[in-house]
Amino acid sequence: MCEPVVNTVRVGHPPVLPPDTYRDCALNVRMDVPAPIAAKLTARRRLPVPAMRRALRIDAGLTQADVGETLGVARESVARWEAGARTPRGEILLAYVDLLDELRSVQQ
Q1: Is the distance from CB of 44 to CB of 32 less than 8 angstroms?
Q2: Are residues 54 and 48 in contact, defined by beta-carbon separation less than 8 angstroms?
Q3: 3-state class of 24 per DSSP?
Q4: How many structural domains does the chain have?
Q5: Are residues 43 and 29 part of one domain?
Q6: pTM above the 0.85 mark?
Q7: Do 97 and 43 form a contact (C-beta atoms < 8 A)?
């Protein structure tokens, strides 16, 4: 499967497709992305940079252990995410992004 088609106005490029649509390079056909995959792609775009993740947690008065317990992962995993060494995946990614969004909205 190819990368998402990038919005472009240059002549000779493929037409702009809806955001959750990909183009299969081998077959040159449009493919709709299943909802669970689209949710994970959207979550990755919404995931703040590591320094912001840490700042949101600290401003909320939470420890890495608190976040890890909430998400069902080890404190060390949260430390790696905040250091930028790793990125959460799958359902954990969705839950982590939701948690960070909630922490951000509480601070505003």
Answers
A1: no
A2: no
A3: strand
A4: 2
A5: no
A6: no
A7: yes
User: From the CB of residue 96, how many other CB atoms can be counted at a distance below 10 Å?
Assistant: 23
- Rounded CA-CA distance 70/64 in Å is 10
The length of the chain is 108
Return the CATH number at 74: 1.10.260.40
Looking at the structure, tell me whether residues 61 and 77 fall in a common domain.
yes
Do 25 and 48 sit in the same domain of this protein?
no
DSSP secondary structure code for residue 82 in this structure: H
CA end-to-end span of the chain: 39
**Where in the sequence is the domain holding 45, given as residue range(s)?**
38-107
Residue type, 73: V
Predicted confidence at residue 31, as pLDDT, reads 60
Amino acid at 90: G
Q: Is the distance from CB of 39 to CB of 87 less than 8 angstroms?
A: no
Are residues 56 and 98 both part of a single domain?
yes
DSSP 89: -
pLDDT tens-place string over residues 44-96: 889 999 999 999 999 999 999 999 999 999 999 999 999 999 999 999 999 99
